[in-house]
Amino acid sequence: MHRKKADFLVLGSGIAGLSFALKVAEHGSVIIVTKDRPLETATRYAQGGIAAVMYDPDSYEKHIRDTLIAGDELNDEQVVRMTIMEAPERIRELVDWGVEFDKNRKTGLFDLAREGGHSEYRVLHHKDKTGLEIQETLLEKVQKHPSIQMLDRHFAIDLITQHHLGEVVTRRKPDITCYGAYVLDRESREIMTILAKTTLIATGGIGMAYNTTTNPVVATGDGIAMVYRAKGAVEKMEFIQFHPTSLYNPLESPSFLITEALRGFGALLRTIDGKEFMEKYDERGCLAPRDIVARAIDNEMKIRGEDHVFLDCTHLDATDLIYHFPTIYGKCLSIGIDFTKQPIPVVPAAHYLCGGIKVDTDSRTSIENLYASGESASTGLHGANRLASNSLLESLVFSHHAAHHAVRKIKTTVFRDEIPDWNAEGTVLNEEMVLITQSLRELRSIMSNYVGIVRSNLRLKRAFDRLEILYHETEELYERSVLTPEICELRNMINIGYLIIKMAMERKESRGLHFSIDYPRPTENQINN
């Protein structure tokens, strides 16, 4: 079996993983493992931008307050303050690395946008493809760095802990330690052992557990599932953010995101017969936080029996629209919609996980020598609902803290050379892919129908019972099969589904993104479908 060593092992090639890698590479060897092409990440698809306080009349206190309100006060205020007050410094780092944010053509200052839940204009952007600009810039620097090795099309199967040395590991064990990961080479099908002094989980979100999602196909919750299996702490998985506006195009999966910045620019939500409806749900109208807008759209679709609503830009200046949103304009044109003349059909789609692997302010997980950053981490910043454009910022801040902590520890951390290689004895190549594809269809149907925007005790109980059957079937198949990415992803998503359902069942209230008809909030009794 093939073995590798690195001072720092990074699982994931988005903004969280790449920014961490660039900072630690001056202090040791780095291996980045990414299961697809390095460019194929959620970061790449982020359209809106990064929220940061840059100019008056904005202030840290305003941004902090907006974040706490959006998070339904379930945020960790210390974390919120830390993240927001560090934002300008992290922005300057991105600019120093070569990221180009749009500037006002007259003043030369950053051209800041406003999105739902924000009280001021504070979102830095690069047209409507901010994430791609960041991703390409950081990736170019990483690929040129002599201390960083990129292993693309490599799939992380499991974290290596004392369990692999024959020790009994439980969730109550206080000193679980990570020594690296077992990784599947998708080309050779060989499972390699990568030993590391420090490991960072930056594997992104869980959107592919749902039928409709804006996430890329790689978003299968792998890092969270690996940490949970390694007996690490995971929390707040019930808080799944559904983006209110993805392009309604049933022939396409994943769904194309229509950025919230378009509503910040003045676009209006309307029913199919042309009526505005957001004012009856929230006084902030189309710029209410995402959880409120998504539930409102979901409710309008259900009471009307319609498949989508419209996002109407036709009253806005066409030249300005096309200048600021060229990617969306081109995408809509590709399916026959000129958004300067026709409204865009939109539906909510699974978009972002606000919970995940529990970490502290240094991005440390409950497992020694293991860090997590980005969407896979639960930092306390978002609370029960993420404020728009706070996610890329969170990744930068927490990867920065993780890098500084990991560098301080690296000289006193040792490799565990006695770790055994992966044992595949007794497994056979499973040729019945239909077992995996059918189970995946069932999982997504369960999650979408029972654990979506609106939930109930009965729906969650049905989801739990049906998922338990899928779990046992998949574990049996996994144990006797030669491993493939498909069986591993299915296993991870079933694990993720279980965590979402379990934590949703434990929350006996409607809070932020978790809305249950059994625990309606006084202001939201109207949404009772």
Element layout with pairings:
Elements: E1 3-11, H1 15-24, E2 30-34, E3 50-51, H2 60-70, H3 77-97, E4 123-124, H4 130-144, E5 148-152, E6 154-160, E7 180-185, E8 191-201, H5 222-229, E9 234-235, E10 240-247, H6 261-264, E11 268-270, H7 290-304, E12 309-312, H8 318-324, H9 326-334, E13 344-353, E14 356-358, E15 370-372, E16 377-378, H10 391-409, H11 433-450, E17 454-455, H12 457-480, H13 485-506, E18 515-516
Parallel strand pairs: 1-2, 1-8, 2-5, 8-15, 14-16, 17-18
Antiparallel strand pairs: 3-4, 6-7, 7-8, 9-14, 10-13, 11-12, 12-13
Helix pairs in contact: 1-4, 1-10, 2-3, 3-10, 5-13, 11-12, 11-13, 12-13
Parts with pLDDT < 50 across at least 5 consecutive residues: 525-529
Q: What is the CATH first-level class name of the largest domain?
A: Alpha Beta
CATH topology heading of the largest domain? FAD/NAD(P)-binding domain
Give me the oligomer status: single chain
Based on CA atoms alone, the radius of gyration comes out at 22 Å
